[in-house]
Amino acid sequence: MSHHVLEARGLSFAYPDGTPALQDVSCRFVHGESVGIVGANGAGKSTLLLHLNGLLVPQAGEVRVGELPVTPPTRAQVHRTVGFVFQDADDQLFMPTVEEDVAFGPLNMGLPADEVRARVRAALEAVDALPLAARAPYRLSGGEKRAVAIAGVLAMAPSILVLDEPSAGLDPAARRRLIGLLRSFSHTKVIATHDLDLVLDVCSRVLVLHRGRVEADGPPARIFGDAALLARCHLEPPLSAAAPKQ
Amino acid sequence: MSRIDAALRDLRSLEALAARDTALARLDARAKVVATLVFIVTVVSFDRYAVAALMPLAAFPLALAMLGELPARPLLRKLLFAAPFAVLVGLFNPLLDRAPMLAFGAVHVSAGWVSFASILVRFALTVGAALVLVAGTGMNTLCVALTRLGVPPVMTTQLLFLFRYAFVLGAEAARTSTARELRSGGRAMALAAYGPLLGHLLLRAFERAQRIHLAMLARGFDGELRSLRALRWSTRDSLFVAGWSAFFLLVRLVDLPQWAGRALLGAAP
Fold it and tell me: Between A and B, how many CB-CB pairs are < 8 A?
């Protein structure tokens, strides 16, 4: 089995106040796939993503990255393989300069300074943000912050990218650049989003979550063409998709 | 932009200054930390009534600010921001210690006023030097240097988190304050509303801090601080520490302003 395969089996999780966030969720993401996870607010999208990266530990069921079970002892290895881009870039960018922020992950991996600098440069070039290297992150625009947050994850050279609401808060031009960027990555991508048009542009498969359960799993054309499914899950068809046939 | 927002941006801009390539930034952070510690020990070791004798020590923060090409205005603003604490500490000295100490013609100055002035000078020197140290080094590199100097990592990590999360708390406070002002109709907030507001603010800041911590964990943070700027101690750093330490010792042992005054008046031995 490829170590790029990411799999959740019978995953359940409830928050401390008892709210069930995930109930018996099983899904599998294979090498090179781009999968969109969609669902209404509170459907469990972010909670599922946090499990895929080992930031949350399953209360029932398991998550595996290839042969590696995602548990607290394997968390460091998981973080190297599964890169997580957070919903709010401001949560991720906390170093004084862009260069230092992108270097944060590689430095924690114990890489030598020369390699860290090379990775920082390559990651910033990949997201077209090299001129921002000396800037303070808090002075960047929303789109620039998002690009730098992605660079911070790319610098760790993960095989799998997990992105939580990557287009949230971006203006149309920045969103279009982000879509181009995501399409250019050969990584396995798991993207939780409300932006169904982004899913249509980037993903070859859609997973619909509803009240913590997998409601549907399939190609975008079939999922977004199912008006009843979308209505049941409090979703609407993407604007760029053809109107679903009744 | 709210005052809280402006203050936060001001503080962040101070740290961002450290990212520039200056003579001060090129020094090993440990050398700057050691020299600053010797400086602070020297300042506090003076007699409680010392004022003029402390003045030559101002050369240290001023020289560092010049080496770091640091702008004076933001540093002075932060110094003034913290000044009320120093005033509070020395406020009662003139009331409690009324013995005459100096006389300028018919005007007598009590020992309390002299010690109050001494507290203000010490405050300006030590806090000024600390601000220059942060602005010329950066908090992250500073904490790495402290760890390398033997400070327990748990303390330096806490220090760094305290600094980072101060921004988190400040940002949440700025949002809450703006939201309240927009719906207050210009009226002052009732005292009873402060409790829920502060509780709400702390919960929001706590949640945000948790998300930041998760983001750090996701990028491999294991509790150890690391910096892109490798710390390399060179002869230049040794000379920096030795030179400034010798100067501090000279200022401590010889009252330079008094000596200069006597020399000018032709009374020097």
Answer: 83
CA distance B212 to chain A (A): 5
Q: What is the pLDDT of residue B2?
A: 62
Where is average pLDDT lowest: A130-139, B9-18, B100-109, B158-167?
B9-18
CA distances to A45, A135, B4, B139, B226 from A95, in Å: 28, 11, 20, 9, 12
Contact A86 B208 (CB under 8 A): no
Structure tokens at A147: 């690009």
User: Which pLDDT does position A4 carry in this prediction?
Assistant: 61
Q: Which residues contact B163 (CB under 8 A, 6 or more apart)?
A: B139
Domain residue spans in chain A? 6-232
Domain ranges of chain B: 1-151+229-259, 152-228
Per CATH, domain A6-232 is 3.40.50.300: yes
CA-based nearest distance B174→chain A, Å: 15
Identify which of B64, B25, B27 has the alpha carbon closest to the alpha carbon of residue B235. B27
| Chain B residues within an 8 Å CB radius of A50 | 214
pLDDT (tens digit per residue) in A93-135: 888 789 999 999 999 999 998 999 999 999 999 998 999 998 8
Considering only CB atoms, which chain A residues are within 8 Å of B214?
Answer: 50, 55, 86, 91
What tens digit of pLDDT does each residue of B248-259 get?
999 999 988 888
**Cβ contact A94–B18 (<8 Å):** no
Q: Is A163 helix (H, G, I), strand (E, B) or coil?
A: strand
pLDDT digits (tens, 9 = 90+) for B29-79: 999 999 999 999 999 999 988 989 999 999 999 999 999 999 888 888 888
SS (H, E, C) chain B: CCHHHHHHHHHHHHHHHHHCCCHHHHCCHHHHHHHHHHHHHHHHCCCCCCCHHHHHHHHHHHHHHHHCCCCHHHHHHHHHHHHHHHHHHHCCHHHHCCCEEEEECCEEEEHHHHHHHHHHHHHHHHHHHHHHHHHHHCHHHHHHHHHHCCCCHHHHHHHHHHHHHHHHHHHHHHHHHHHHHHHHCCCCCCHHHHHHHHHHHHHHHHHHHHHHHHHHHHCCCCCCCCCCCCCCCCHHHHHHHHHHHHHHHHHHHCCHHHHHHHHHCCCCC
In this predicted structure, which of A10-19, A68-77, A176-185, B5-14 has the lowest mean pLDDT?
Answer: B5-14
Mean pLDDT over A62-82 rounds to 91
Q: CA of A74 to nearest chain B CA: how many angstroms apart?
A: 12
Q: How far apart, in whole angstroms, are the C-alpha atoms of residue B116 and residue B118?
A: 5
pTM: 0.77
CA atoms B125, B127, B133, B135: torsion sign: negative
The reported pLDDT for the residue numbered A2 is 47
